[in-house]
Every structure is written in C-alpha cells, then in structure tokens.
Amino acid sequence: MKRTQIHVDEEQDESLTKRAAAARVTKSTLIREAIDAYLKGRPDERLRLDRFRAAVRAAAGSADYLPDGKRYVEALRAVDVRRQEEIERRRRE
How many angstroms from the chain centroid is the CA of residue 70? Predict the structure, then answer.
C-alpha cells in the first residue's frame, strides 16, 4: 500500500470522522472505499454526470425572468385550484 496525503475541509473531516465511527473503520478505509467506488464506476456514467453538472452550473441564473421556486410552485398550485373549481362547477351543472 502506498501512503499519500490529501487535504479536506473541516466539514468533510467531521463527516468522515462520524461515518468512520459508525462503521467502525478508519477514515482512511472510507476514503479508499470512496476512491474504489468512483474508479470502478462506468466511465461513460461519470462523464455524463460531469457534463450534466457542468451544464447546470453554466445555466444557473441564466433565466432571471423566471420566478423563484416558491413563487413558481404557488402559481402552479393556484392554477390547480382554479382548474379543480372549474371541474366541480361543471359537475354541478
């Protein structure tokens, strides 16, 4: 086994510590398992995911004319309520 050194941020280190304790293994074991899982994945799946993430990052904020998520969902729900009211009105006729 070859020794190497990596840098992780505080949050990553805390998460590793907790997960290692829960699994009763070392942080090094978790890191090796994560590397193995990444490297054993199909390259085309990783490539597609990387491209998707890049596209999302590139598109983020590009449609500033759209409402935020909360307002968008509220508008959809309002349309659903009106549609349901119309259905109920037609049933009574």
Answer: 18
Type of residue numbered 21: A
Taking alpha carbons only, the member of 52, 35, 36, 54 closest to residue 44 is: 52
* Whole-number pLDDT of residue 59: 82
- 90: three-class secondary structure by DSSP: helix
The CA-based diameter of the chain, rounded to the nearest angstrom, is 79
Q: Locate 58 and state its tokens.
A: 């590139």
Two tokens at 87? Answer: 């259905």
Number of other residues whose CB lies within 10 A of the CB of residue 32:
13
Total-model pTM? 0.46
Spatial CB neighbours of 66, under 8 Å, sequence gap ≥ 6: 72
Q: Can you tell me the distance from the alpha carbon of 26 to that of 33, in angstroms, rounded to the nearest whole number? A: 11
Which percentage of the chain shows pLDDT scores above 70?
Answer: 100
